Backbone:
């Protein structure tokens, strides 16, 4: 999972009850990490993304806030800032320990139809998600920002995956809420099923079509984070985010539509230095190492999307994969 990258914490908070199906997920790096973002599609909902551009002052972020609630849900980041600020984590602007400005970029997805109007995440959601943040296994499925998520005709959710490569550990967390489908409705097989490693999905793929009413809203957005333990610049970090979007395109068809605001953040904790040779080919050596990380970023993000699909449980009247193809789970 993304928490296999040392120093990365994940927490969820959600409300799933009559009138409510929404939530917030935080990916925290309290001690700071180099950050970047890649946004695609025509309907983004984001906050503090311009500061991640390589030419701008701030180099490190303290957390990423992912939330339901459409643009209203951006308020959840206020709670994340409050939690980090209370603990002295952030960009220092004064001599005292508490004089910091936590750097918390955020992105939101559209899940408003799953809750009564006015029921959406606020600052308390972000704060509660931070209180729940931990370095252990990540809860997946209908939790956090994935509580009201829908992917095509099925229930979406939160998924996570990781991989170890020569350059270090690469992890991803995806909140799957796409206009496109993540599974072939003609066979029941996810588009990124071939990315499975060691039977991790734990299912037997079906081979039959499904006929089910569409739950499409045409206003969606898949959001997520990819993290590595390498020491990268902001520009190199952005290459990771770009590659993770490739993983999304493998797992969802179509991806990056005018009705999606697909946004992926990248974090580099800096625990490992990338190899860099001497002489005229030194830069090529570093670029090759970065390319290894980027290739892994695409794979782990695609796997995270499948985990989000398979782990989701039905909510707000939207059927889950396990409801449509129960035989995949041996039932």
Residues:
């Amino acid at each position: 999972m993304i928490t296999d990258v040392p120093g990365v914490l994940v927490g969820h908070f959600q409300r799933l009850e009559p009138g409510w199906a929404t939530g917030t997920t935080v990916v925290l790096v309290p001690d700071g990490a180099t950050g970047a973002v890649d946004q695609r599609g025509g309907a983004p909902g984001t906050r503090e993304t311009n500061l991640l551009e390589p030419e701008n002052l701030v180099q490190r972020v303290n957390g990423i806030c992912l939330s339901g609630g459409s643009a209203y849900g951006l308020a959840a980041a206020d709670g994340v800032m409050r939690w980090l600020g209370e603990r002295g984590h952030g960009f220092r602007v004064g001599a005292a320990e508490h004089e910091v400005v936590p750097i918390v970029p955020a992105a939101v997805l559209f899940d408003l139809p799953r809750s009564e109007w006015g029921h959406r995440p606020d600052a308390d959601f972000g704060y509660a998600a931070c209180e729940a943040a931990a370095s252990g296994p990540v809860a997946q499925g209908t939790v956090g920002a994935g509580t009201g998520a829908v992917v095509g005709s099925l229930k979406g959710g939160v998924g996570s995956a990781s991989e170890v490569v020569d350059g270090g550990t690469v992890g991803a967390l995806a909140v799957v809420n796409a206009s496109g489908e993540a599974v072939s409705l003609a066979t029941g097989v996810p588009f990124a099923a071939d990315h499975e490693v060691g039977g991790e999905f734990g299912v037997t793929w079906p081979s039959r079509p499904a006929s089910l009413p569409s739950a499409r809203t045409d206003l969606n957005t898949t959001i997520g984070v990819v993290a590595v333990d390498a020491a990268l610049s902001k520009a190199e970090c952005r290459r990771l985010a770009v590659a993770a979007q490739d993983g999304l395109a493998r797992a969802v068809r179509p991806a990056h539509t005018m009705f999606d605001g697909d946004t992926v953040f990248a974090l580099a904790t800096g625990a490992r230095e990338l190899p860099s040779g001497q002489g005229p080919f030194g830069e090529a050596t570093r670029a090759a190492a970065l390319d290894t990380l980027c290739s892994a970023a695409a794979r782990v993000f695609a796997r995270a999307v499948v985990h989000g699909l398979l782990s989701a449980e039905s909510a707000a009247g939207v059927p889950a994969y396990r409801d449509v193809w129960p035989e995949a789970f041996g039932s």
Observations:
- The mean pLDDT is 94.
